[in-house]
Amino acid sequence: MLKVLKSGFYTTIQDLGRFNYRTMGVPVSGAMDNYTVSKLNMILENEEDAAVLEITMTGPTVLFDEPTHIALGGAEMSATLNNEPIDNHKIYKIQDGDILSYGRLEKGFRAYLAVKDGFSTEKVLGSRSMFFPITNKRHIADGAVVPYEVNKAFEPKISKYKVDSLLGTTSLEVYRGPEFNLLHDRQLEQLFGTDFSVAKENNRMAYQINERLSEHQFSMLTSATLSGTVQLTPLGKLIILMKDGQTTGGYPRILQLSKKAIAILSQKKSKDKITFKLL
Amino acid sequence: MNTYPISIRPFGLQAILIEWPNEVEKAILDDIICYMDQLKSHLDAAVWELVPAYNSLTLIKKDIPVDFSEFSEQLKRWYGEKKLGPSRDRFLWRLPVCYDLDFGIDLEDVAEKMQLSITEIIELHTKAEYIVYGIGFLPGFMYLGGLPASLEVPRKKIPRLKVERGAVGIAARQTGIYPQESPGGWNIIGNCPVPIFDVTKTPPCFVNVGDRIQFYAISRASYQLRTIEGEVGIYKVEKMKLDA
C-alpha cells in the first residue's frame, strides 16, 4: 500500500483511459502526458495500461509500506526519497517505510509516479482513471491508501533511461480540424503567427488560451470531439479539449493536436507560451 | 430509406468524420444509425468507437493511426452496400418527472414569459415525443429534439453554478435532463428521479441515440419512492418497442 500523508494540489490515478463509453458521453480520461507515462511503464517493464499517480503543480508526501520499484517522470518537482534528492526516469528500489516527497515545481506542470506492475485500485468501466462521477472520487485525498501488488522477483534490466524532455518545447504540432476551412486569411495569420499564452482556466478537461482570434458567426450541429480538439467560440476564444474533455461539442473544431502535442501542452501552466505548427 | 451525399474526412490521425446534410431530421439520423450498425459488423469493437450525433458519425481508432485514403474508399463502398431498414430494436422510454414547484424552480418564470399556465406547460412537455439525436456533454446527457414551439424559451441570462442532478430543463429548441449536478443555463421545470447514467448497470446508460423519450408527470410522493428505488438500484423504466 501507498499511504498518502499529504495529497498535494491535485493528485489522481490515471492509466490509458476509458474506451467504448463515448457514445454514452463518458470522457476517455487517462494520463495527460502519456508520452512520459509510456516511458515510465516501459522502463519498469509494466503493461502499457499500468496505472500511475498524476501529480499536478505541488506534489504529495507518500509512505510505502511494502517493497517495490518506482520511477518518476514528467515535471521536475524536486522529489526526495527519505530526504535524498532523486532523479526522473531512473528506477529506485523501495523498502518498507520509505517516504517519497516533493518540493518546488522547477519545470513543467504534471509529474508522474509509476510503480512496478502499476497501482491496483478498482477498475470502473474498464479503467482506473479517476473521473467523477464515474469513479466516486475526483482525486486522492490526504490519508488515502493506494494499493499496489508486491513483485519480489523483479530485477530491472535498465536502471536509468534517457528521455528527450518535452518540457521546454512550446511548439504544438496540429492537423487541420473538420471546420478548418471556415477560417479566413486574417484568422489563419493570427493562428499560425501568434505566440499564444495559456489562460488560468486550464485543467484536465480543457485548456483555454488568453489571446483571441477574430469573431465568427458559423453555427454547426453538435458533433464528436476528441482529446486535443481545438474549438473556436463565436467570440474568437480558443478552447483545447484535453483528456477529461466532453465527448461532443457545438463549436467549430478548427485544429486537432497530435498525440505528442497533447503531452507537451499538459506540461504547461497559466501564462506559459505556445505556438501552433500545421503538419 | 434514402441514400445521402455523405462526406468523409480525416479528423486528426486516429479518427474519421462522416457527415450527412446539415439538418436536424429523423430520416438522416435513421440513415446514420443504419450505417453505423452495418459498420459494427465490419470493424473490431476492441479498436473502434463509433459516435453518432445529429448529422455526423465519427469513427475513432484506439491508439493506432488510420490509413485514410484507403479506408475512406472502403467506407464509401460499405455505404453503397448499406442494407435498408432498421437493423436493431429501438425504444420509446417513458420517464417520470415531478413538476412540483420545489423542483421546477423556473416554472413560474417560464409560465409568465410564455403566457401559459403551469398546467399547460406540463401538458405540452409531456405530450411530445422527443428523439435522442446525441448523447454527450456529460455522461448520460441526451440531446433531445422535438420540443413544441410554444415552449421555446431562451436560456437564462445568467447560468446557475449548480443545477441539481435529475433536473429537467428547457432552452431554445431543446429539452433534457442533467444526469449529474452541473453548472447550467437551462430553465428548470422539474426533476426526473430515474438515474439516466448508472455505472453499476450494464450498460450504464439504457438509452441509445435514435431512441425516443416521453415524459409523464408524477406526484411528490411517487418521486420520493422512485428516488429511493434509484439509490438502491431497483428501478424499472417503462419502455415500448418502436415500429420501424
| Largest sheet: spatial strand order of chain A | 12-19-16-17-14-13-20
Tally the beta strands of chain B.
14
Rg from alpha-carbon coordinates of chain B: 20 Å
With strands numbered from the N-terminus, the spatial order across the biggest sheet of chain B is 7-6-13-5-14
Provide the β-strand percentage band of chain B: 25-35%
Name the overall outline of chain B. Answer: elongated
The main β sheet of chain A shows up as: 7 strands, mixed, barrel
Keywords:
heterodimer, A: 279 residues, mainly beta, Cyclophilin, seven-stranded mixed β-barrel, six-stranded antiparallel sheet, 3 helices, 9% helix, 32% strand, B: 244 residues, alpha+beta, Gyrase A, domain 2, 2 domains, five-stranded mixed sheet, four-stranded antiparallel sheet, 5 helices, 14 strands, 25% helix, elongated
Q: What would you say this structure looks like, in words?
A:
The complex is a heterodimer of chains A (279) and B (244). With 279 residues, chain A is mainly beta. Chain A has helices at 34-43, 185-193, 259-265, and strands at residues 2-6, 10-14, 52-56, 61-64, 68-76, 80-81, 84-85, 91-94, 99-101, 107-115, 145-146, 171-176, 196-202, 206-209, 223-224, 229-232, 238-241, 248-249, 253-257, 273-278. Chain A has two domains: 2-146, no CATH class; 171-278, Beta Barrel (Cyclophilin), CATH 2.40.100. A seven-stranded mixed β-barrel of chain A has the order 12-19-16-17-14-13-20. A six-stranded antiparallel sheet of chain A has the order 7-6-9-4-1-11, with no helix packed on it. A five-stranded antiparallel sheet of chain A has the order 2-3-10-5-8, covered by helices on one side. In chain A, 50% of the residues are buried. Chain B is α+β, with helices and mostly antiparallel strands and 244 residues long. Chain B has five helices and 14 strands. Chain B folds into two domains: 7-80, 2-Layer Sandwich (Gyrase A, domain 2), CATH 3.30.1360; 91-241, Cyclophilin-like (Cyclophilin, Beta Barrel), CATH 2.40.100. Chain A binds chain B through residues 16, 19-26, 124-125, 133-134, 175, 177-178, 220-224, 226, 228-229, 246-249, 253, 256-259, and chain B through 9-15, 17, 19, 22, 24, 45, 49-56, 58, 60, 62-63, 133-141, 143, 179-180, 197, 199, 203-205, 208-209.
